[in-house]
Amino acid sequence: MPSLLRNSPRLARHLALAALPVTLPAQPAPTAAPNIRAYLPAIEHYIAQQMQRNRMPGVAVAIVSHDSVIYARGFGTDGFGASVTERTGFVLGSMSKSVTALAVMQLAERNLLELDAPAQRYLPWFRVADAGASARITVRQLLHHTSGIPTNAPRAIGASRTLTDQVRALAHVTLNNAPGVVHEYASPNYLVLGAIVEVVSGRSYASYVQASIFSPLEMRDSHVEQTVAHDRAHPGRLSSGHVYVFGFPVVRTLPHEGDRLPTAALISSAADMGRFLVAQLRTDSSALLSAAGFAQMHAGGAPSNGFSYAFGWRDGTIASEHAVHHGGIVPNFRGKMVMFPERRLGVVVLTNVSSAIPWPIAPTSHVMADDIAAALIGVTPPEPSDTHRWLFGAIGTAMLLVILNQLRGLLKVVRGRSSGVRASRAGIISIVLDIAFVAAVAFVIPRVAGLSWTALLLGAPDVAWWLIIVATLSLASVAVRLVRRV
Predict the structure, then answer these.
(1) Does CATH place domain 2-105+202-375 in 3.30.930.10?
(2) What is the pLDDT of residues 222-267, one digit of tens each?
(3) Rounded CA gap, 477 and 405, in Å?
(4) What are the contacts of 389-395 at 24+ separation with CB within 8 A?
(5) What is the separation of C-alpha 202 from the centre of its chain, rounded to a whole number of angstroms?
């Protein structure tokens, strides 16, 4: 940690400052447990260590206790040369789903929609490949990810695509399961919900969220348009995102996905998401939503691996404590929210670095959120490991060895003088294997990863270019063999 502080004077100043409260004017006076602040030095030390070990450019954290945000602070830099603050903007990724679920619940409480009604009641044109299944998918199933829509369902393409285009792209999708049977996390579920919000409310999803959620909670740093978030004069301006390239963060600002706001593209700050958690942890009803409505949102209804999915939240345990939580991952941002409802404690961690490939890095922001939440109930934060560096180092070395081996093989083919039936058969087998490998790189691997080549190049350039190089070397080997045979 000392080396990190020497190299980051702004971070050192941040760690030296006492935590300042962020007041919510509309909320009751805070009733925070007196020992929460005693954990802050250990938490800040843990954050600094995680940033150093995992080469994280910027992090923002907010901690909520009862009816107020008692701590909100930024660490590191935003990629534009400025310090990250509690008001710096981050792309929320799948944390956007909790906002969409809240919008749906608001409309349900106003009797404008029914949770168990078919989605086609509100979107008559919505369908998947099976017409019968299309008619059976309900709003509740979309909220629970039990509609049967697959995780890797195709997306709409085109520069001017809209939310409606994304939903219409599901028209030829074959469901993985019958509606209402199995939980399969799939972002398109919340795109359909966003389209329902638009039809039922009579306004765009962005306009509805801004007016009915962000404004009432005074979330002034939360945005639905990246152009606003990029205003450098705005205190809540958007940080640049970063992608890991062989374990090192590289600035990468990706196009804003305005067509995917309901599931992955809302923008907010740690301070604002703290306000959002305060609203979620209220024990009384409010103009935003009734207490019963929030309880329904947080109650798991779709069992999965280690948790039960609720409405835009996961209902499970962290540090042996009942927790309601949700993370968000996009290629250049990651974050997570954690709540202990019975203790009325909450934590949000936002980071400005990620990767399009879920491996080899664990979602560090998720680990940080869990560990900080556990620290609030007396669990000592663990010492961060160097696994991140070792993994990236090992994978980078493996990539280099594969390329060197292919170059060696290509050189051997170029110099080859072998002949005879056995050599001929071996050559044919090698040609077939190389062609199969190139086809796998071009089509199979992106499909399995659920990423287009554009997404790979933008979000995981090290992996993408390695695949391109090894595929090119295989094609060169095929070409040399074919020329020799001719």
Answers:
(1) no
(2) 998 766 566 666 777 899 999 998 889 999 988 889 999 999 999 9
(3) 12
(4) 389/53, 389/55, 389/247, 391/247, 391/360, 391/361, 392/244, 392/246, 392/247, 392/360, 392/361, 393/247, 395/246, 395/360
(5) 29
